[in-house]
Amino acid sequence: MPNRQPKTILETAAKSKSYHNRRRRRSALILFVACLVVVVSAVGYYGYTQFEIYRQQQIDINSLDHQGAVIERQAQKQTRGTTSAINLQDQQLKTIGAVMIPKIALRLPIFSNSSDAALEIGAGWLPASSPLGGGAGTHAVIDGHSGKAKPLFTWISDLRNGDKIYLKAGKKMLEYQVINRVKQGDGVHAPTYVKDLTPKPGQDLLTLITCYPLLQNKQRLHVTAKRVPYDGQQKQVSFWAYLMNYRLELIVAVILLAIPLMAFIITKWRKKGNNATK
Question: Which positions are annotated as active-site residues?
């Protein structure tokens, strides 16, 4: 009987250690599943939100009709002759056009003003500039946000000379080619700089404006393009191509998903290694 006591103590200790190991593994598994659920839920919600934004943008574009050009000219007439341009933010947003850039898979509605409400979901026409319809001696200007949780104008900095910009104004489809972007720093100006936005005799110009650099408001990027004959090649932007504008966010999402998964795999691998050495 005295010889039994040490063995009983060892058995009890082994059982206790095994019990605590099981609890630790169970806790680790619960933590892994919880992290995975949180990350997947966050990514899923983000994806759903972006799909809703994309869907609304397409609805706004599809609502565009021949009245768009009329609305645009009326808005411009209201602002012409004023020193600060009438604040149209409180007026109902009206879709007057659409801008499409194949290189960056961008397709946005253009609204009749550049208020905060307009720039949250699309691009805004600058009422003090020329109408979107184009023509000799015109220079239309379109504003768009960068760095938000939506692509908008974030990637127009990737555009270079010769890249195509398609503009839908009413029922007309116009094509422009970038002319002022040879390298990355071209077209970057102070927020108050407007000399390059004036019309030029005989030319039909279009300029896209956004904050620069990314996530800052210190400067403005002006991407200017000139009118060329429409080639008929403008295509619909798919939702998956639209998602590629979120490449930074997608990389972060993959990393967040990979961290708990890798931690779980490493834990399993170490456990198997420890069992093999026993």
Answer: 145, 211
